[in-house]
């Protein structure tokens, strides 16, 4: 019970199910999600990696979740870092927050936020910032999110035609991914992990 309480309210392991955030996060990495990060008035900031519930933005609001028993078992396994996350949960990087204008792309092929080009050192080697062109003003109370492996990520770009234009409501954010906890060789904070991913990308790019 104590494990469930900690997982429900404080910090929860999250198993990375896909390569959409590579090279920052790799398939099978276990990250620790800080569920208190945004509970006391703070909001997600650009560049942070967040885990969120996708129903109502990436998925229709009526998408069914797990049944009661299977949901309880999944939550217990997830609290221990032993099971994959729910199919309705996603991990992405925050690119734009409420009020931001996010555009792809400038003359050099870079994303621009409020007219300022982004230097995205965390991108997967060989990926362009985006092959999908867009120009969106992020509504207040919502986020524009993208994966670091842009050619393998289904993110805000894929939901431009849905209500909210692919943006994620703040109240659907589960928490901030702060640490890579497993495997041991990759133990690091996510800020350091982003810097390391950038170095690795430079070495292989």
Describe it.
This protein has 205 residues and is of the alpha+beta class. The chain has helices at 2-9, 68-79, 190-204, and strands at 11-15, 30-34, 49-53, 89-96, 101-104, 111-113, 116-117, 134-137, 142-146, 168-169, 173-182, 188-189. The strands form two sheets. Strands 1, 2, 3, 4, 9, 10, 11 and 12 form an eight-stranded antiparallel sheet that branches. The chain is built from three helices and twelve strands. It is globular and about 40 Å long. Helix content is 17%, strand content 27%. α1 packs across α2 (68-79).
Relative helix content:
10-25%
Backbone structural class: alpha+beta
In the predicted model, the low-confidence regions spanning at least 5 consecutive residues are 1-9, 67-74
Distance between the termini: 47 Å
Mean pLDDT: 82
Shape: globular
């Amino acid at each position: 019970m104590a494990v469930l309480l900690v997982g429900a309210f404080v910090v929860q392991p999250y198993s990375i199910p896909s390569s959409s955030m590579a090279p920052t996060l790799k398939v099978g990495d276990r990250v620790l999600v800080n569920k208190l990060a945004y509970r006391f008035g703070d909001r997600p900031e650009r560049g942070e990696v967040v885990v969120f519930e996708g129903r109502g933005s990436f998925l229709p609001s009526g998408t069914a979740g797990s049944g009661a028993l299977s949901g309880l078992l999944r939550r217990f396994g997830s609290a221990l870092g032993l099971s994959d996350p729910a199919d309705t949960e996603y991990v992405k990087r925050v690119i734009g927050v409420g009020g931001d204008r996010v555009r792809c792309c400038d003359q050099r092929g870079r994303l621009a936020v409020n007219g300022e080009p982004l230097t995205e050192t965390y991108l997967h080697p060989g990926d362009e910032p985006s092959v999908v062109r867009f120009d969106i003003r992020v509504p207040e109370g919502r986020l524009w999110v993208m994966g670091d492996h842009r050619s393998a990520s289904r993110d805000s770009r894929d939901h431009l035609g849905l209500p909210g234009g692919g943006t994620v409501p703040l109240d659907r954010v589960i928490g901030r991914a702060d640490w890579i906890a497993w495997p041991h060789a990759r133990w690091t904070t996510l800020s350091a992990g982003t810097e390391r991913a950038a170095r690795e990308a430079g070495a292989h790019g």
